[in-house]
Design brief:
By secondary structure, this protein is mainly α. It is built from 16 helices and two strands. The two termini are 22 Å apart.
Length: 447
């Protein structure tokens, strides 16, 4: 096998199609977790704490998946067994999570949370764990099977499918409301529009993952070694790495891109956590107290629409990024994208019309498009030829998870400092993206 061999567009598409289904599940989680827990009785100052578990599980799970999938050469493939197991667990949890308020629990509180919130919290933990198990192999398979020339295209296809999946997941609640499924429910119970969104998302998730599972043939060890120019005798002598030695030997791109990632992912954690409250207050006249009120639930549907517009903006911006790269280099495209996203975030506080707000979220999509494609392109180029690419990509996921954990821990504190203004948290997100844009120039690319 020639390591310069190009894959057809169809093969590149098949390689990432399952990501479409995984991202539907992730979008449903991102757009509805704050809504679900607020409906179950969570205080706005508690909301960010519910967002600690998803990135924490990702930070634990993805390096493990990377490490062990690097060594899993079996008849089913190298990465594919993990994405299949992750998808199966995810669909089970997606059925349970939105029903947290329907089970008969004691109403007593433990650490300030009722039993329904605890059930939802553990369901969320398993959901995000399974999504991470299913998600990471798609990034690794691109690193395994795509050469440097096509890697940008491969991650762009993945970015497009990611945003298309997000678009579908985000609009499900308002779509089901439009066709007559109830968007309100008794206090403490999640509306049927949200439940059916999770059910349909689970079905699409397993379909898409099975499509990639059966249409992609991974490289065997000999083909992989030849593709990446690894000599067999070198592979035999190489000791199994541990994460400390890998971090010590990590290319500078791993750390410098990680700094940018820190600011970017903290910003989006604030968006996912506080968009529902911000939009409900500014555009729907919510009183900030009763999360079962129609104003809050209608705003919850509109959050999905805003996030969907963000996904559309991201897909459109993804077609502009290659042009920006040619004109301003990859780092220039990265910087411009983050600045445009920051403008979108900061503008949210000045807008009281739900339709005008869509423009802000479209601009936010520019930053999201860059975050999905550029960091992995820079890193995998720097790791070209490494036998531990999967392990590195798993460790690199910590640069996505850790900033979300930090933002989740500090979210309630910052919200108190700005007098409980959830709209003000969107401005904070914009400031973080600006800091990320300045940090781009710390990166040294390897071509």
């Amino acid at each position: 096998m020639n390591n310069k061999t190009n894959l057809s567009f169809a093969k590149l598409f098949n390689l990432s199609f399952g990501f479409f289904g995984v991202q539907i599940a992730y979008a449903l989680q991102s757009a509805n977790i704050s809504r679900i827990f607020a409906t179950l009785g969570a205080d706005p100052h508690q909301l960010s704490f519910f967002w600690i578990l998803p990135p924490l599980m990702g930070m634990i799970v993805q390096p493990i998946i990377g490490k062990y999938s690097d060594k899993t050469w079996c008849s089913l493939g190298r990465r594919k067994p993990y994405l299949l197991v992750g998808a199966i667990i995810a669909i089970l949890v997606m059925i349970l999570l939105p029903n947290a308020g329907n089970f008969t629990f004691t109403q007593s509180l433990f650490l300030g949370l009722n039993a329904a919130m605890w059930f939802g919290l553990f369901s969320l933990m398993f959901l995000d764990t399974s999504i991470n198990i299913a998600m990471q192999p798609f990034k690794m398979m691109v690193g395994d099977m795509v050469n440097e020339e096509q890697k940008g295209l491969a991650y762009s296809i993945q970015s497009f499918l990611c945003n298309a999946g997000s678009l579908a997941g985000y609009i499900f609640p308002i779509l089901f409301t439009w066709i007559g499924i109830a968007n309100t429910a008794p206090e403490g119970t999640v509306p049927d529009s949200v439940k059916w969104s999770f059910y349909v998302g689970a079905a699409l998730l397993i379909f898409c993952v099975l499509y990639t599972f059966f249409t992609v043939k991974e490289l065997n060890p000999q083909e992989y070694a030849e593709f990446h120019g690894i000599k067999e005798e070198e592979g035999k002598k190489e000791e199994e790495p541990n994460f400390i030695s890998l971090l010590v030997k990590a290319p500078s791109a791993f750390w410098t891109v990680g700094i940018v990632q820190f600011f970017c992912w903290a910003a989006f954690l604030f968006m996912w956590t506080y968009s529902n409250g911000a939009i409900a207050t500014q555009c729907f006249g919510w009183d900030g107290i009763n999360a079962s009120a129609p104003a809050f639930q209608d705003a919850g549907n509109w959050v999905g629409v805003c996030f969907a517009i963000q996904a559309v903006g991201s897909m459109l911006w993804a077609t502009i990024i290659p042009l920006l790269e040619k004109r301003f280099t990859m780092k220039g495209a990265y910087t411009i994208s983050l600045i445009v996203g920051a403008i979108g975030f900061i503008s949210c506080i000045f807008i009281n019309n739900q339709y005008v707000l869509l423009v802000s979220y479209a601009l936010i999509g520019a930053a999201w498009a860059a975050m999905l494609a550029i960091p992995f392109t820079i890193l995998t180029n720097a790791l070209q030829g490494s036998k531990s690419m999967g392990y590195y990509l798993g460790l690199f996921n910590c640069t996505i998870c850790l900033p979300q954990i930090v933002a989740a821990l500090l979210g309630g504190v910052l919200l108190n400092m700005i007098d409980g203004s959830q709209s003000g948290m969107m401005v904070a997100a914009g400031v973080l993206l600006i800091l990320g844009a300045f940090s781009v120039y710390l990166i040294k690319e390897k071509h």
